[in-house]
Amino acid sequence: MDFQHSEDRRMLADTLRRFLAEQAPVDRRNAAAYGDSGYSPAVWQGLAELGVIGALFPEAAGGFGGSGFDIMVVFEEIGRALSVEPFLGALTVGHALAAGRRADLLEPIIAGTSIVALADAEPQDRGPDAPYATRATPDGDGWRIDGAKAVVAQAEAAALLLVSAQTVDGASLFLVPSDAAGVSIQGYANVDGGRSGEVRLSGVTLTADARVAADGRAALAAAEAAALLALSAEALGAMEVAKAMTIEYLRTRKQFGVPIGKFQALQHRIATVLLEVEQARSAVINAADAFDHDQGADRDRRLSAAKYTVGATGQLVAEEAIQLHGGIGMTWELPLSHYAKRITMIDHQMGDQDQHLQRYIALGRAA
Amino acid sequence: MDFQHSEDRRMLADTLRRFLAEQAPVDRRNAAAYGDSGYSPAVWQGLAELGVIGALFPEAAGGFGGSGFDIMVVFEEIGRALSVEPFLGALTVGHALAAGRRADLLEPIIAGTSIVALADAEPQDRGPDAPYATRATPDGDGWRIDGAKAVVAQAEAAALLLVSAQTVDGASLFLVPSDAAGVSIQGYANVDGGRSGEVRLSGVTLTADARVAADGRAALAAAEAAALLALSAEALGAMEVAKAMTIEYLRTRKQFGVPIGKFQALQHRIATVLLEVEQARSAVINAADAFDHDQGADRDRRLSAAKYTVGATGQLVAEEAIQLHGGIGMTWELPLSHYAKRITMIDHQMGDQDQHLQRYIALGRAA
Amino acid sequence: MDLRFTPEEEAFRDEVRQFLVEKLPTRLSDKVRRGLHLTKADMEEWHAILNARGWLANHWPERYGGPGWSVVQRAIFDDEAARAFAPRLVPFGLSMLAPVLIKYGSEEQRRHYLPRILDGTDWWCQGYSEPGAGSDLASLKTSAVRDGNHYVVNGQKTWTTLGQYADWIFCLVRTDPTAKAQEGISFLLIDMKSPGVEVRPIVLLDGDAEVNEVFFTDVRVPVENLVGEENKGWTYAKYLLTYERTNIAGVGASAAAFDRLRATASSLTRGGRPLADDPLFAARLARIEIDLANMATTNLRVVAAAAHGGAPGAESSMLKIKGTEIRQAITALQRRAFGIYAQPFVPEALEEGYNGAPVGPEDANTAAPTYFNMRKLSIFGGSNEVQKNIISKMIVGL
Amino acid sequence: MDLRFTPEEEAFRDEVRQFLVEKLPTRLSDKVRRGLHLTKADMEEWHAILNARGWLANHWPERYGGPGWSVVQRAIFDDEAARAFAPRLVPFGLSMLAPVLIKYGSEEQRRHYLPRILDGTDWWCQGYSEPGAGSDLASLKTSAVRDGNHYVVNGQKTWTTLGQYADWIFCLVRTDPTAKAQEGISFLLIDMKSPGVEVRPIVLLDGDAEVNEVFFTDVRVPVENLVGEENKGWTYAKYLLTYERTNIAGVGASAAAFDRLRATASSLTRGGRPLADDPLFAARLARIEIDLANMATTNLRVVAAAAHGGAPGAESSMLKIKGTEIRQAITALQRRAFGIYAQPFVPEALEEGYNGAPVGPEDANTAAPTYFNMRKLSIFGGSNEVQKNIISKMIVGL
């Protein structure tokens, strides 16, 4: 039993934290996050060179990490710095490809030279086992895809999209160049920074080898597992900063002649925030452990437990942080408000707290 | 629009409050509530003579009240005094009989000379439309009943039980003398005072006129509606007292050299209790209004809304009242603890907060 | 006890409804319903429509132009207007300054300013909060020093809502720096066009710029712009803050927002089934609906007490807390309802006449900004913490 | 980072499990599982079994009879014992007094008292709280006045758990009434058989009488019963209160209680379907299960930090708060699960050997009394409010 990250991981975290503090302090982060491209190519390239992407993948896939705790460490720092660089795309696509035994495709992803995005969700909601509305049909030796994908993170920046589409073999996965004929992307800003996009695929023709998985279920499950862990860790990092900012504000802001941290009602509320954030940290540790050691429903249950926990705790932390700051906590100028937004919106990615609580229950029944 | 009770009702409430304060202060209430009979026959008879039971029924049924606000006023006082006298039985059986067009049977109930109890719930849980396990079969000119009824309030004290039982006509209602051959009652104390009992019916033979309703659904619905309103109002009364006791304790208990009501964390918690109790009062008012003016699903929805509200608010109030009192709030000696118990256990009668929230949702869908 | 309105009150409600059907421009109610930004002209348009009907200043005495309504009539009007998605009236002149002038101003001030509020000549804003004086309002520092027939004002106000449109600001200023905190404060009316007044917008987390900082540098204000007596401003300020506002619970606005939420839940599916059938979502929805129905009655109880001359005390704090909690719960669930489509941020879509392709379901993109914006409800107007202090003071008395 | 235990630790866990299977009497574990009352003899029986194995005082140094376990081993043992429904060890001698004697007592005191704790000769209870000194412990008034070779003690203690069985009580007493609150306090060991000691039971709301008031009237206590120095008792008291207890979170006990709750939910139906399939009940159950799984890791993180020599600070307050919240949530849901059958109160059914007809499902009648009894968890042992004060002091530092 050891709750210290390994020396290597601590170094990785330190390096990442230092780099982001220097290269992407919150004002520069905001300029990029709310700017035209929605991220900083320079920061992204710098992080790739530091090996941050490689840390997300095991050696077999060309990386030098890839364990649950590697993902936790990297995404906690991403959360701490509110990084909007396209890590989630690299993580999910990379893990999907590796699970689909196409680790050979990972090299440019790990090098950071190829930005990738997972295009899985669709504009129309569908049932858990319902087919995708996006369909791929045989077209000569290759394929033709028609459909639409929803809220694809950094879709405009991505060179390649990993697209799920219904085929006669089930849900297959296709690597689609974003500049292929028939691909159109309507990009937009996210409320919490960064950009996403609606992807439309109209008669997109692909060669046979574009299909990287005939049955994409295992690959998508791997991507989902990695994403749930990553988003939970990112939320944790952002909560830690929001908590620390609020504690600092309680120490320094004066009203009625004393720091507001002297008021017991506020003291008790920040104490509650503290202990719930510690519980959230434990949930993320559990999820990382599950990612490494558990399989199937056992693993997914602990991942859903973490996503549920950071969703519920995130709402508490974001709302309390704003409320304890008062009006200033609502201003664009104060970094806190951007942390609150990011924490809140993570509950809108890959299923919210209620969905994961219900998934947790359903997986427990199935077990 | 008028949120004052009528002059008559205010007088009724005052009389009732004064009588209970004099005749059943909490020490005497406790002696009766936890004693052998589980209530005070003298208090019951006194209240009957004051006309309290009559206030629960309309003139057509031999009473002089019977509106939702009459029931609210009476049961709020019952809650304030933690009265354990068998009002709920009189109310439910009386309203069931009146709804079943058998108001002719109410006179001894209103006079207080016949104690009655509704024996509807059964030891084995069943679905909402499932038949009763208790069955009545034709037996000569009369009926024969076999089955069991669960947690019948004041079963031992009751002279008559209104028993629901499955017949070929559906769920019928029977008036069963508690001393009839084949009726056995296992009585026990309730954790919150008063007594209840398990009723077993083995080959109980009854004359034909014992069946007071062939199709008992309307009668049971009337009894249920009255019971939900009454229990909600009772919870409100008990919460008001628990709140007042806690406020008084905050004013007088000193720690660290000052009254503990000086501590802001506690101030904010009692403020929350205050406003939730006001919301609960509004819920009970809404339920009383629904009892008088609404029909069917509309009525039942607002009744469930009230029962849900007092269930959820009751847990808050009971737990906060104990916690803010500290250890002393947990002692048998302090009246508060008995209020906390009663408030809590009302959530175990006639469906708890979750069940009523779900009933509220289901009734809304059906509408 | 009777929750029902009288036949006269119901007739009045019908009259209000009829008026709203006829006179409330659909263009405006659509913008309100969808959470779009109202322009200055939008707000002025509705203001003028109400003024033309004589219903604008519905809580003013008749001699100053009020319609002579009872407390219950005002509650009915406010409720119906909100449910019809009428724009909220800008309260600073109508509901904040005017009551102070009516109670404490000179007859000359009343005759000058009140008609100009009614006809829209003067747009007022509020100069209460300062960067160092939020919940602790009495610690304000903006100074006004007498110089002949003028006060010379220096300092800074903040959180000045819609100050960018204002012609005038009413300010709390410190006129006696040697007095105890609450005793050296005066209530001053300042022309925003005076030399030395500067307004700077504060951008909020949702990208919106509806609040401002206002800076005063040697601003000369004629002494006749003092309301009441010098150094008695705290009394007027408190009157303004506790001035009985039947609408503080915002029941009508919450009911309208809840209707919109329910429509959203009915129109969407999640995991292949109607969102409203998701048991946890349905439970959240039902809890809010019940809380709101309870609140509606709580609010009427306070209104009825006010109609019988009861003074608002802990009640108005209670309505403020619970009202804002419910409204915030609605906006949180509205955000949650849209799932992934709450993330796209299309600020242009918040403006009238946006013709871009919609992203996701209708109105999805305003849900998160509205949620974030509405966090202000529990902070502004006396934070909910301050309201709890007030309640506790009233009931525990320590 | 590694949540897994080492092979050595897993082997130790197996050894503990084996021991529990062999040595923990089913009669006792059944009583604990079902929430029945343990008699004095029950508690002594388990105490003696552990002592025979050398595992009783598992946090004591080896030289005084501890088994020499690591922090992790102790956590494993506590966890397994709780999950096996072993009786809780009465902590007053073993875990409260003993650490104080080991750190601050004289060698003579250690040699005299510690073996008697181990072999069960002395049953200890705690004399800290007084009627006027609860959360504000330092305001205690019980006085000890030196009179030759004795202290003469007068005053009253309260909330003395299991004091009715005790041979000895360790007390905080005021030896210098002129000193500041925390400076005139001493730590005194008092023989309960001394003339002038009187114990009166306090009946709790669940009808239980496990706590007591203890009155002292001119009780003469030999001066050698003073621990450490006169007037330094507050130091020892604080040490005792913050003494690192790996078990403060009660993870094992909560896990056992949760298993029982889940079994209850599986065995019951509501409205004709399994209770565990009721979506709101299932959600409550799942929230607790997740919170508990998080807590288990939080607890291990603190244990691991302690194993590396980290000092417990805000952590132990955090574990106390969250641990008690979880336990209370479990008991509330257990009560709720039984519906109408939580109301019958059959106190005899809480005693071993009750042969009456059961009322409702098995164990239904202990659910409500247990729920009410467990409200004490957030009050005793430093109320959760005091723990929040401590956390805030540590993190905000004001």
UniProtKB/TrEMBL annotation, chains A, B:
GO molecular function: acyl-CoA dehydrogenase activity; flavin adenine dinucleotide binding
Limits of the Acyl-CoA dehydrogenase/oxidase N-terminal domain: 6-87
Cofactor requirement: FAD
Residue ranges of domain Acyl-CoA oxidase/dehydrogenase middle in the record: 121-199
InterPro entries membership: Acyl-CoA_Oxase/DH_mid-dom, Acyl-CoA_Oxase/DH_mid-dom_sf, AcylCo_DH-like_C, AcylCo_DH/oxidase_C, AcylCoA_DH/ox_N, AcylCoA_DH/ox_N_sf, AcylCoA_DH/oxidase_NM_dom_sf
Residue ranges constituting the Acyl-CoA dehydrogenase/oxidase C-terminal domain according to the UniProt record: 230-344
Record-linked Pfam families: Acyl-CoA_dh_1, Acyl-CoA_dh_M, Acyl-CoA_dh_N
SUPFAM superfamilies on file: Acyl-CoA dehydrogenase C-terminal domain-like (SSF47203), Acyl-CoA dehydrogenase NM domain-like (SSF56645)
Keywords: FAD, Flavoprotein, Oxidoreductase
Family the UniProt entry places it in: Belongs to the acyl-CoA dehydrogenase family.
Name this polypeptide is given: Pimeloyl-CoA dehydrogenase small subunit
Automatic annotation (TrEMBL), chains C, D:
Cofactor(s) the record lists: FAD
Protein species of origin: Sphingomonas abaci
Ranges where the Acyl-CoA dehydrogenase/oxidase N-terminal domain occurs: 6-120
Gene Ontology MF terms: flavin adenine dinucleotide binding; oxidoreductase activity, acting on the CH-CH group of donors
Database matches in PANTHER family: ACYL-COA DEHYDROGENASE, ACYL-COA DEHYDROGENASE FADE29
Keyword terms, alphabetized: FAD, Flavoprotein, Oxidoreductase
Record-annotated membrane-spanning stretches: none
UniProt-recorded name of the protein: Pimeloyl-CoA dehydrogenase large subunit
Gene3D superfamilies: Acyl-CoA dehydrogenase/oxidase, N-terminal domain (1.10.540.10), Butyryl-CoA Dehydrogenase, subunit A, domain 2 (2.40.110.10), Butyryl-CoA Dehydrogenase, subunit A, domain 3 (1.20.140.10)
Pfam families hit by this protein: Acyl-CoA_dh_1 (PF00441), Acyl-CoA_dh_M (PF02770), Acyl-CoA_dh_N (PF02771)
InterPro entries xref list: Acyl-CoA_Oxase/DH_mid-dom (IPR006091), Acyl-CoA_Oxase/DH_mid-dom_sf (IPR046373), AcylCo_DH-like_C (IPR036250), AcylCo_DH/oxidase_C (IPR009075), AcylCoA_DH/ox_N (IPR013786), AcylCoA_DH/ox_N_sf (IPR037069), AcylCoA_DH/oxidase_NM_dom_sf (IPR009100), Mycobact_Acyl-CoA_DH (IPR052161)
